[in-house]
Amino acid sequence: MGSPPVAVPPPHRDLTTRARIRDAAVARYAREGFGVGLRTVAEDAGVSAALILHHFRSKDGLRAACDTHVLRLVREGKERLLMTGGAQDLLLQLASMDQYAPLLAYALRSMQAGGAPARQFVEHFVADAEVYIADAVAAGSMRPSRDEKARARYLTVQGLGALLLDMTLHPPDDPTDVVGILHRYRDRMMLPAVELFTYGLMTDDRILDAYLRYVDDAPEGHGTDGSA
């Protein structure tokens, strides 16, 4: 007997058979990960596993279609939020819109799985971070950095990585409940994070100065990106 069907609430309802299969797969993968079999997705979509293979050729083909679809919808949602000045709260704002929660759950699953789709999701969030950090620096609410792009990438990877680790240590009952996941994470982590970002950690700049001297003296081919 298969798992209970998962509700599929896509932002743009497309009732073609191919789209119905894809949306069912996105919802199921968001809840349970990419180990779910085609028969379970077929049950959710109300079709046969053979029909999934007809439309997508393989499970990998279905996953690729899901990745493309979710990336497109996240990009469209991000662009709408950026136009309204909401880049700072992109994850929470998207998650608070019920129709987008499964998409962000899927994105988190994809980042857990790794690979090219995970890198694409991270690049979207890095681009957003660059925008709102630049705005904060221009407004005087954030200090400038020696390397703004590197700082945006670090903060994005740090934030997403901490969230994914927190989800591993405190697995949610419903992985698609992105709003609840973010709120519980906020309750555990927000105070120390804000305190650290507000006051800093070091009491002087000796470690930074030592690192900058190391970078200046490093032999050619040993860059700050960790390459040897």
UniProtKB/TrEMBL annotation:
PROSITE patterns: HTH_TETR_2. It comes from the Bacteria. Pfam families: TetR_C_25, TetR_N. The keyword DNA damage does not apply. Transmembrane segments: none annotated. Residues 15-74 form the HTH tetR-type domain. InterPro entries: Homeodomain-like_sf, HTH-type_TetR-like_transc_reg, HTH_TetR, Tet_transcr_reg_TetR-rel_C_sf, TetR_C_25. Residues 37-56 bind DNA. The keyword tRNA processing does not apply. Keywords: DNA-binding. This is TetR family transcriptional regulator. It comes from Cellulomonas xiejunii. The lineage of its organism: Bacteria, Bacillati, Actinomycetota, Actinomycetes, Micrococcales.
